[in-house]
Amino acid sequence: MTHDPKGSAKRPLILIVPGLNNSGPDHWQSLWEQQRDDIARVNLGMWDLPHRNTWVNQLNLAIKRAGRPVILVAHSLGCHAVNWWAALEQPGHDGPVIGALLVAPPEVDHAPLDSRLASFGPTPKTALPFASIVAASRNDPYMSFDGARALAQHWGSRFADAGEIGHINAASGIGTWDFGQFLLAQLERNLPASEPVATTQAASAAPHFDQQVSAS
């Protein structure tokens, strides 16, 4: 991850945190990175055989090198990397990370679909010290919808129903994923966590927010 030469010190840097096997060219994370000059990808390394502490250290380095406020946009196992970073580094409410969009976190505690995910368990179940949104699909093979909602409760995150779009990746056929951009915009606008958010996106299972999800 390198500094964004077009970025402004007053503008948050959006750090893309991919999951297992990185995000390929058709993944919405990669498409966002191509579209915006305020986005950079964290090179977590060991993409095919992830190591929890290595990923946390690489994420920590990228956050420190940003030199400005950071919004994290994580997918799949990257969500757990963010959670472990917060648990191990224990940043304060005035820390460099001001928000996180956590998309499709997989099951890592109980019989994960891919055995390589298990090293990220057990999941820390403490509230994140920054604004966050967990977005989940109703038919994600890597995590049940109720399981994702429970993680949102533990992490003190708002919860967004993304409809039935699988693991919310390139295979989901969602292109630049408009609803995800909508969610990111909520973090960029720094809406209060208690404020309900609506969306006009139409789908067979309309994506929506819970009004408020508190850490249990």
Task: Describe the 3D structure.
- By secondary structure, the protein is α/β, with parallel strands linked by helices.
- The protein has a single domain, classed as Rossmann fold (3-Layer(aba) Sandwich).
- Helix content is 27%, strand content 15%.
- It has a seven-stranded mixed β-sheet, sandwiched between helices.
- Helix 1 (28-35) links the parallel strand 1 and strand 2 (39-41).
- It is globular and about 40 Å long.
- The model is unreliable at 1-7, 191-207 and 211-216 (pLDDT under 50).
Structure summarized in a few sentences:
The protein has five helices and seven strands, in the order E-H-E-H-E-H-E-E-H-E-H-E. The model is unreliable at 1-7, 191-207 and 211-216 (pLDDT under 50). The protein starts with 12 loop residues before the first strand and ends in a 7-residue tail after the last strand.
Strand element count: 7
Share of helix, binned: 25-40%
The neighbouring-strand order within the major sheet is 2-1-3-4-5-6-7
Estimate the global geometry from the Cα principal axes.
Answer: globular
CATH topology: Rossmann fold
Classification by helices and strands: alpha/beta
Number of helices: 5
Which CATH architecture would you pick?
3-Layer(aba) Sandwich
